[in-house]
Amino acid sequence: MRYIRYTFLALIAICLLLVALANRQVVTLRLLPADLAELLNMPFTVSMPLFLVVLAGVAVGLLVGFVWEWAREHRYRAEMQRQTREKQKLQREIGRLRTEQEDGDEVLALLESSEPSRRAG
């Protein structure tokens, strides 16, 4: 299974390398359209290879997807935490009741301890 994973990662790396080699031409990215940038006096431009633009877009898309999914699942995580706290509270209550029962009623404690032998027979 480990070799399949390494093979898959190697194929992805080869594909990314091929995309990078095929798209090495430099492109100019602008924050705003040229006329609006001149009007606002904010001529922000960046020149970089096209493959970096593509890979950065994929990375930003993945990041937005992960954050979106994390936020969407918040209610399920909160419900799970609530149920875990309730379960722990009930387990403490059971332990407390067993301790009280053992201290207070010896007949019930004897009956409870003999139950597995009655079921087995």
UniProtKB/TrEMBL annotation:
<feature type="transmembrane region" description="Helical">
    <location>
        <begin position="48"/>
        <end position="71"/>
    </location>
</feature>
<feature type="coiled-coil region">
    <location>
        <begin position="73"/>
        <end position="100"/>
    </location>
</feature>
<keyword id="KW-1133">Transmembrane helix</keyword>
<keyword id="KW-0812">Transmembrane</keyword>
<dbReference type="Pfam" id="PF06305">
    <property type="entry name" value="LapA_dom"/>
</dbReference>
<protein>
    <submittedName>
        <fullName>DUF1049 domain-containing protein</fullName>
    </submittedName>
</protein>
<keyword id="KW-0175">Coiled coil</keyword>
<keyword id="KW-1003">Cell membrane</keyword>
<keyword id="KW-0472">Membrane</keyword>
<dbReference type="GO" id="GO:0005886">
    <property type="term" value="C:plasma membrane"/>
</dbReference>
<dbReference type="InterPro" id="IPR010445">
    <property type="entry name" value="LapA_dom"/>
</dbReference>
<feature type="domain" description="Lipopolysaccharide assembly protein A">
    <location>
        <begin position="23"/>
        <end position="94"/>
    </location>
</feature>
